[in-house]
Amino acid sequence: MALSGTLQDFAGGVLIFLLKPVSVGDLIKDQGHIGKAKEIEVCVTSLLSLDNKTILLPNGSISNSKLRISMRKE
Questions:
Q1: Which residue of 4, 10, 29, 66 has the smallest Cβ count within 10 Å?
Q2: Is 23 part of any domain?
Q3: How many domains in the chain?
Q4: Structural contact between residues 68 and 57, judged by C-beta atoms closer than 8 angstroms
Q5: In a domain, 48, yes or no
Q6: pLDDT attached to residue 36
């Protein structure tokens, strides 16, 4: 039970790496935060917020979120 959150974040990271719904540079809105994806790791994604703060979001949340906004840079 204690590992369920970590396993969900790991599985979310695997899904992000395989399906690529989010890439570095995309704008993401999740858990009340908004920012550009700075780095995508196995369990967390770091965002650079609009006021230049680093926010770490768990990949389980990002992969399951219905409110995520992802815009590809052109």
A1: 66
A2: yes
A3: 1
A4: no
A5: yes
A6: 92
